[in-house]
Amino acid sequence: MPATRTSRRSDRPGERRDGVQWLSDLIRLEIVLWGRIDARLKEKHGLPLSSFESLSFISRSHEHGLRVGELAEALGVTVGGTSKLVDRIERSGLIRREPDPDDRRASRVALTPDGQRTLAAAVETYEAELASVLDGVLGRTEQALLHSLVARLLASTREGASS
Fold first, then answer.
1. CA-based Rg of the chain, rounded to a whole angstrom?
2. Long-range contact set of residues 84-87: C-beta below 8 Å, sequence gap at least 24
């Protein structure tokens, strides 16, 4: 039975949502945030944001790490692209491949001790750079609401993709 979705958008007469402008603004915001955080992570840690994102997802996985396909799904990119990214991060010494305890034909990626240290330091840099953009414009409650709304929208797109 499909989940019931409630609409929270306003349907008042005369009120019109400009979806093109809204999405365009959201995309430009993502590009600005990506660029700023990516530059700061590279400057302070030699770590591109794409690698940071991968390390972050891997660190949140269960004790045996993630398969490349699972990481690709979490990142929302192709398995082939993720495999190349994993190869680059592995060469830098931040992750390692380990045998999958559930399937001897597969492997999982896990953080190395250097990867754990690098990620911990990079998280502080990431959060500081994000705060430099958000804190002067949005209060804590507004930031929490924005995060909640984006997470809900993202989750709904994943639900729609699996049906």
1. 19
2. 85/50, 85/51, 85/54, 86/54
From 33-37, 77-81, 155-159, the region with the lowest mean pLDDT: 155-159
Q: Looking at residue 13, what is its pLDDT?
A: 55
**One-character DSSP codes across 9-21:** S---TT----HHH
CA 3 → CA 6, 92, 150, 156, 163, distances in Å? 10, 44, 19, 11, 11
pLDDT of 45 higher than 70: yes
Q: With contact defined as beta carbons under 8 Å apart, do 121 and 45 qualify?
A: yes
CA pair distance 85, 76, nearest whole angstrom: 13
**Model confidence at 3: pLDDT above 50:** no
CB contact set of 145 (below 8 Å; sequence gap of 6+): none
Judged against a pLDDT cut of 90, whether residue 138 lies above it is answered with yes
Residue type at 94 in one-letter notation = L
CATH architecture group of domain 21-162: Orthogonal Bundle (1.10)
